[in-house]
Amino acid sequence: MPQRQLGPFQVSAIGLGCMNLSHAYGQPPSFEAAKALLERALDQGVTLFDTAALYGFGANEKLVGQVLGPHRQRITLCSKGGMTGQPTGANGALQRVIDGRPESLRRDVEASLQRLGTDVIDLYYLHRWDKQVPIEDSVGEMARLVQEGKVRTLGLSEVSAATLRRAHAVHPITALQTEYSLWTRNPEIAVLDACRALGVAFVAFSPVARGYLTDRVLDVAHFDAKDIRRAMPRFLPGNYAANLALLETVKAVGAEAGASVAQVALAWLLHRGPDILPIPGTTSLAHLDDNLGAAAVTLSPEQMARLEAAFAPGAVQGTRYNSATQAEIDTEEFAG
């Protein structure tokens, strides 16, 4: 597995987003199946593992800690706080809450350390900027967590270039994480340039577009009731059907390169710059192997240009989030 730099850490060029194993896309796999996938990733050379307090309301951190704990010195462990499950629902049911107050972030990191079974988190992200709290206050508390040795480096998720600069002025930001793929190119508006100017690594989540950039046609009309894609405009049946036509260029490039659709999508990201680290997630061992194979795929400048032309801003039908979720984030967005 080729290596890339993530702040002070040398990590696998392709990491693993662990969310799918506990959260977001319907019924999660059994513990045994999730354990097998994490161990397979480790055996295949993956050293960058990404989780969060939100995923499964803590269950994903427990899973990652239990399975990867014996291999702690071999991996770079990343987690997130500031958006967690809190007992605010009926009868104390857990609900997703964005809370970036200093005292809440301290609570979050302490809980994450316990669930992960470690005394330090290598890279700790602010999962969402709480717009009721100045970013300087949230990052200031996170900086104190670094000073106390609870976390080694800091990251931000789903923030704009301006917010990144404000945060970086308080404490060096090691990585910025947001969605980036052929069909979500918003980071190219301003964030990628800001990251490069500040020496911040860019971590691309959902790099195969939540299953769109694969060889499998999704049954979007019958997603599981708990599948978060049900609320995403791009996956509405009409929009999804229109978006499928864009895949013809990816398939053609894949045929030329001897690569799957997902491998072309991931190779495109890797070719976009040595500072970009995709973290695809999956529950399938076969898909894991396929994703990791992208590190060996070479795309020509002409193939890169064809892919980018096919997915030019405005080509994709539907926004990536609905209006309620979009209001929670702080990123520059192309119109959808």
Largest sheet: 8 strands, parallel
Q: Please give the number of β-strands.
A: 12
Order of helices and strands: EEEHEHEEEHEHEHEHEHHHEHHH
Radius of gyration: 19 Å
**Proportion of residues in extended strands:** 15-25%
Overall outline: globular
CATH C-level class of the domain at 3-211 and 270-295 is Alpha Beta
Q: Whole-number average pLDDT? A: 97
CATH architecture label name of the domain at 3-211 and 270-295: Alpha-Beta Barrel
Strand order of the largest sheet: 3-4-5-8-9-10-11-12
Low-confidence stretches: none
Instruction: Write down the oligomeric state.
Output: single chain
Name the CATH superfamily classification of the domain at 3-211 and 270-295: NADP-dependent oxidoreductase domain
Give an overview of the whole structure:
It holds the Pfam family Aldo_ket_red. It comes from Ideonella livida. This is Aldo/keto reductase. An eight-stranded parallel β-sheet has the order 3-4-5-8-9-10-11-12. The protein has helices at residues 31-43, 59-68, 102-116, 135-147, 161-170, 191-198, 237-244, 247-257, 261-271, 285-292, 301-310, 323-326; strands at 3-6, 9-12, 16-17, 48-50, 76-81, 83-86, 95-98, 121-126, 151-157, 175-179, 201-205, 276-278. The chain has 336 residues and is of the alpha/beta class. It has twelve helices and twelve strands. The radius of gyration is 19 Å and the shape is globular. Helix 1 crosses helix 2 and helix 5 packs parallel to helix 6 (191-198). The chain starts with a strand and ends in a 10-residue tail after the last helix. The protein has a domain at 3-211 and 270-295: NADP-dependent oxidoreductase domain (TIM Barrel).
